[in-house]
Amino acid sequence: MKKLDEDIPCGWAPAGDTLYRAYHDEEWGVPERDSRALWEKFQLDGFQAGLAWITVLRKREEMRREFDGFAPEKIVRWSEKRIARALSNPGIIRSPTKIAATINNARIYLDMQERGEDFSDYVWGFVGGKPVVNRLEHWRKVAPKTELSETISKDMKARGFKFCGPTIVYAVMQAMGMVNDHEVRCPRHKEIQKLYGAGGTRKKAGK
């Protein structure tokens, strides 16, 4: 078996796609602990359902503009007229069901906030605040969901959140740095570990 070359980015981040590559090199897997930013990640991954992630990336900036910066306190006040305006914007993912879910999720987020429950603390609490460090040799070997993502998904659904199935949750976990799923040959694997030190919990990919 041919040995993988060192210091080559993850196979899913082609050098020819500058947008995808920038997302891989600068954002994906970086530990995110800001509650609003985390909530945005969950909504965007919900919009991805049934689509390729590159579609979301290409529309993300326009979606941020249309969705009031993904500020829950603004989205929760959307009227039918405001929803109709969003649905007329070709620059976003125009799904009435996903927009309704985002409004619903804003309400749940704010309900948690009103009870003094921080969304970031809630999400990170599932790993005790410490990222899981996987030792992934090839990105295709990672499972689409894990026991942990199923646990988080079940809890979020019980709270009333929508578009938070275990596969969506695991995609967010990867993006927000709750798990380091960069291939071990990828420079970002080590670089990201330096962002939170050696305190991550080491587990095999897919476990």
Labels describing this entry:
207 residues, mainly alpha, Endonuclease III, domain 1, three-stranded parallel beta sheet, 10 helices, 3 strands, 52% helix, disordered N terminus
Could you characterize what this model shows?
With 207 residues, this protein is mainly alpha-helical. It has one domain (18-203): Hypothetical protein, domain 2 (Endonuclease III, domain 1), CATH 1.10.340. 52% of the residues lie in helices and 4% in strands. The protein is built from ten helices and three strands. Strands 2-1-3 form a three-stranded parallel β-sheet. Helix 2 runs antiparallel to helix 6. The protein starts with 17 loop residues before the first helix and ends with a strand. 30% of the residues are buried. The model is unreliable at 1-6 and 198-207 (pLDDT under 50).
Task: Give the gist of this structure.
The protein has 10 helices and 3 strands; from the N terminus they run H-H-H-H-H-H-H-E-H-H-E-H-E. The chain has 207 residues and is mostly helical.
Q: Main beta sheet, described?
A: 3 strands, parallel
Report the CATH architecture: Orthogonal Bundle
Tell me the series of helices and strands, N- to C-terminal. HHHHHHHEHHEHE
- Mean pLDDT comes to 90
How many β-strands, per DSSP? Answer: 3
CATH superfamily label: Hypothetical protein, domain 2
Which range does the strand content fall in? under 5%
CATH class descriptor: Mainly Alpha
What is the CA-CA span between the terminal residues?
25 Å
What is the topology, as strand order, of the major beta sheet? Answer: 2-1-3
Number of helices: 10
Percent of residues in helices comes to: 40-55%
Catalogue the unreliable spans: 1-6, 198-207
Secondary structure class reads mainly alpha
Q: What is the total number of structural domains?
A: 1
